[in-house]
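Could you show me just one protein sequence together with its fold in token form as a worked example?
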Amino acid sequence: MITGRYGRYVAVSALVAFAAVLTACSAAGVADSRTPGVPSGIPVDGLDLKPAVHLQADGSIAVVTWGSSSCPPTASAFDNDGKSLVVSFSTSSNGVCTADLAATTHIFSAERVGDTVPVEATVSFPEFDDTQVVEVTRP
């Protein structure tokens, strides 16, 4: 057993790391994961800045959004009934947001997506009264 100052340092460090993992998980909202950037293989036009929805080879869906890198959107709803795919996002605020424009990718698992994926998806940002219908690209 480690005691003293070093032991407290190790215990506090472990607690901070655990809290960071919990925070990262909750930041994805209803998505299975949220990561900065755009994975390779997803056709995105960085000048267009429209959301991109891509059916991946493993059956999961990747949704790419654009916004502040320090306050990326959080997936608040996901619904696919086989006829319509709807994804909604809310803003996330970590205090003061940077005034940059960065891509964020939200992944929804194949289990959540289901067997049938429509040709188009509706991506909405209700806080900004913004709804866009985009093509679901495929591998």
